[in-house]
Design a protein that fits this description.
The protein is of the alpha/beta class and about 350 residues long. Strands 3, 5, 6, 9, 10, 17 and 18 form a seven-stranded mixed β-sheet that branches. The chain is globular and about 65 Å long. Bound molecules: nicotinamide-adenine-dinucleotide and zinc ion (2 copies). One zinc ion (ZN) binds next to helix 2.
Length: about 350
């Protein structure tokens, strides 16, 4: 039996998204049907709509979600109907060269549902990051469901499904931020603010938030930033160096995804420091750096996909910290909205009004 549900679809490059009826098949072998309770609006959804990821329109947007498993297909044993789950875009395969070397967070062969969700005329949809959760129900691979404590609010829990995990993980997993480190975070939207939180959890002594928006900086301070720099009015590199004894930060996290902010990150880190790129660039962007500086400054230049997270390890742990009051996820939820308000949320995101708008169903 197939399910007819309402969902947010991007039909063409740059065109406003529309609320449509889509067809979701019953789960086949290895798949799970999930009733969505909440799904955050991430900048990557907007990238999809603008054609910045690929041209496989129509997209079924939404990928930062939590919900309840409604049914599972043949052979599924890890999750069961009734489980409260966060959806992830890293269902690891266990067999690729990364998994076999014991580094599943780099899995090169993650999987999604095999069956396609469609429009009512049969047109196949491309679900954003293999999830597609601005929908009343979605079909995913069972491995994309990570069971967590039901006591957590769906709006907060869902955020771990992408942006907040990407930010926390960029600091903790990729940047390896440790006790006493100095960290600078360039761009403090949902992802960057989460990198601030991750740095704080990891025991960083100095956390410098950089943004061009005072409101974002204020929130970053609330979440643990010790210093704030508005790089609209001042030079980010100079400001970060000044705040770190003239040297630069041990770890600089770029959470915008632009060449100029990457360059700032590169020069704002101390010698032998680490740059983590978590912002997603678009295909036409180029970076030019003196190779001698790349060599001479030493250290590590890394990129962070999904915070190098392992959902089965990281989601339940972070939800536990949240329930203990040690990880503030609620501050990330600026507003809750209805399914037909995603386009409006994109506008607000574009204006920089929100950390996260979260669709609650
Ligand atoms: N690597 C991953 O796994 C991953 C996961 C999710 C999102 N992302 C990416 O991370 C980036 C941020 O996502 P988000 O949801 O936080 O977006 P967002 O729009 O909420 O935040 C972007 C922030 O950058 C600030 N900004 C813009 N230009 C700036 C500049 N020149 N200098 C300093 N700050 C500037 C904005 O004011 C805003 O606060 C996006 O590129 C998104 O696609 C990456
Ligand atoms: Zn693998
Ligand atoms: Zn995302």
């Amino acid at each position: 039996m197939a399910h007819q549900v309402r969902a947010v679809v991007a039909r063409g490059k740059g065109a406003p998204v529309s609320l449509e009826t889509i067809i979701v098949p019953d789960p086949g072998p290895g798949e799970a049907l999930v009733k969505i309770e909440a799904c955050g609006v991430c900048h990557t959804d907007l990238h999809y709509r603008e054609g910045g990821i690929n041209d496989e329109f129509p997209f079924l947007l939404g990928h930062e979600a939590a919900g309840v498993v409604e049914s599972v297909g043949e052979g599924v044993t890890d999750v069961a109907p009734g489980d409260f789950v966060i959806l992830n875009w890293r269902a690891v395969c266990g067999q690729c060269r990364a998994c076999l070397r014991g580094r599943p967070w780099y899995c090169f062969s993650t999987h999604n549902a095999k069956q396609k969700m469609t429009l009512t005329d049969g047109t196949e949809l491309s679900p954003a990051l293999g999830i597609g959760a601005f929908a009343e129900k979605t079909l995913v691979a069972a491995g994309q469901c990570t069971k967590v404590d039901r006591a957590a609010s769906a709006a907060a829990a869902g955020l771990l499904g992408c942006g907040v995990m990407a930010g926390i993980g960029a600091a903790i997993n990729t940047g390896n931020v440790g006790r006493g480190d100095s960290v600078a975070v360039i761009g403090c939207g949902g992802v960057g603010a989460a990198a601030v939180v991750g740095s704080s959890l990891a025991g960083a002594a100095k956390i410098i938030a950089v943004d061009i928006d005072d409101l974002k900086l204020e929130t970053a301070r609330k979440l643990g930033a010790t210093h704030a720099v508005n790089s609209k009015n001042s030079d980010a590199v100079e400001a970060i160096r000044e705040l770190t004894g003239g040297f630069g930060a041990d770890v600089v996290i770029e959470a915008v995804g632009r060449p100029e902010t990457y360059q700032q990150a590169f020069y704002a880190r101390d010698l032998a420091g680490t740059v983590v790129l978590v912002g997603v660039p678009t295909p036409e962007m180029k970076l030019e750096l003196p190779l001698l500086d790349v060599f001479g400054r030493g250290g590590a230049l890394k990129s962070s996909w999904y915070g190098d997270c392992l959902p089965s390890r990281d989601f339940p742990m972070l939800i536990d910290l949240y329930l203990q009051g040690r990880l503030d996820l609620d501050t990330f939820v600026t507003e809750t909205i209805a399914l037909d308000e995603v386009e409006k949320a994109f506008e607000r995101m574009h204006r920089g009004d929100v950390l996260r708008s979260v669709v609650v169903l």
